[in-house]
Design a protein that fits this description.
Blueprint: E1 5-6, E2 12-16, H1 23-30, E3 34-38, H2 43-46, E4 55-58, H3 65-77, E5 82-87, H4 89-102, E6 106-110, E7 122-126, E8 132-137, E9 144-148, H5 149-154, H6 157-180, E10 189-190, H7 192-217, H8 223-243, H9 247-255, H10 266-280, H11 284-297, H12 313-323, H13 339-348
Parallel strand pairs: 1-10, 2-9, 3-4, 3-5, 5-6, 6-9
Antiparallel strand pairs: 7-8
Helix pairs in contact: 3-4, 6-7, 6-8, 6-10, 7-8, 9-10, 9-12, 10-11, 10-13, 12-13
Bound molecules: zinc ion.
Length: 350
């Protein structure tokens, strides 16, 4: 008999140029009193559109326990009934974590499309030392994700490229989980739709990614760019949360052990993980194809490009140990993964 399968979604997802202009209306739809946590980079730009918020507060820089507690206290003191997170990945994750602590709904407005964080029911919490402390799994995803594509087009194209890197992993990882029967973040195998979304994510970025990069560099919102933004933010999230994760993100977590890569974006490290995963399995033709794709997009394909100029045996061993530790997601692959395999694949990308 077949077991249970499952899929999860953000509550609502709305995307288009000028979406920000309707933020107040959508927020009021959810509840009357909002704390808006805003990325300092865009705070001056969005003041007018946030005039409805009960409180507007600049984000402190990292998604740490201290920052979550500070903002949760502010929201509580002001009697807020909704948390808005407006900014990049760390702002978005902090907003979700604050809302979780207070059991409130979240409205997320991503200002870049650099990862699938805006839609997920997951927050990455950092320690005061700047290293990842833990993944915080949340009871529910955002109530609404509002994506203003003009805002994303105006942001540097490097962010879009990183989002394509994150989205690139989605299908490979979901497909590994489908083959191995590994479970998703609900503790279930994905429904058919989960894997279809993951595949569509891959097809969309493959077909439209290169042109979308040009459109983004020209600050031009085209249907091509719209497609890729949807793939980076929505499809990639559904694909990973409900299809499952595996080696590409495990290698990402391993790379994060090294201080040298801290300036590289999440998706830039994940793309290296995808390439290493293909090398590990000796999938030569696909490796060449993905390498060429990354070059066109402007994604980094060598360890030196993400800050590891001269990888020592010790460095690669630390990455491999973290990627392959017991219970780690790399073991969601349909074949055994060893530290040696990870080390050898990364050496080939030096
Ligand atoms: Zn990711």
């Amino acid at each position: 008999m077949a077991g249970l399968t499952g899929i999860r979604f953000p509550g609502r997802y709305i995307q288009g140029p000028g979406a920000m202009d309707q933020l107040g209306r959508f927020s009021q739809d959810i509840s009357p009193s909002a704390l808006a946590i805003v990325d300092p980079f865009v705070d001056d730009l969005v003041q007018d559109q946030l005039d409805f918020a009960t409180l507007r507060e600049r984000h402190g820089g990292d998604c740490t326990d201290a920052e979550i507690a500070r903002l949760a206290k502010l929201a509580q003191q002001a009697g807020c009934t909704q948390i808005i997170g407006l900014g990049g990945g760390k702002v978005v994750d902090t907003a979700k974590a604050v809302a979780e602590q207070l059991d409130l709904p979240t409205l997320i407005v991503p200002t870049i499309a650099a990862s699938d964080a805006p839609c997920s029911a997951l927050a990455v919490v950092y320690g005061e030392d700047g290293k990842v402390d833990r993944d915080l799994f949340l009871k529910r995803g955002p109530e609404l994700v509002l994506v203003d594509t003009q805002m994303i087009a105006n942001a540097p194209a490097r962010f879009l490229a990183a989002g394509i890197g994150d989205a690139l992993a989605t299908w490979f990882e979901a497909e590994s989980c489908r083959q191995s029967g590994a479970v998703n973040c609900l503790g279930l195998t994905g429904t058919g739709l989960a894997y279809m979304v993951a595949r569509n994510c891959f097809d969309t970025i493959s077909q439209h990614g290169p042109q979308a990069m040009l459109d983004c560099a020209a600050d031009s919102v085209t249907s091509t760019l719209e497609n890729v933004i949807e793939a980076n933010i929505l499809m990639s999230c559904i694909g990973f949360e409900s299809g499952g994760v595996a080696t590409a993100h495990a290698i990402h977590h391993g790379l994060c052990e090294l201080d040298e890569v801290h300036h590289a974006l999440h998706g830039e490290k994940v793309a290296i993980g995808v390439l290493a995963g293909l090398l590990m399995q000796d999938r030569k033709a696909e490796f060449k194809q993905i390498l060429a794709f990354c070059d066109v997009i402007g994604l980094r394909t060598k360890l030196a490009h993400i800050g590891i100029d001269a990888p020592t045996d010790d460095m690669l061993s630390r990455v491999a140990r973290r990627a392959c530790r017991p219970g780690e997601i790399t073991h969601n692959e349909p074949f055994p993964v060893t530290e040696t395999m990870v080390r050898d694949a990364l050496s080939a990308l030096a």
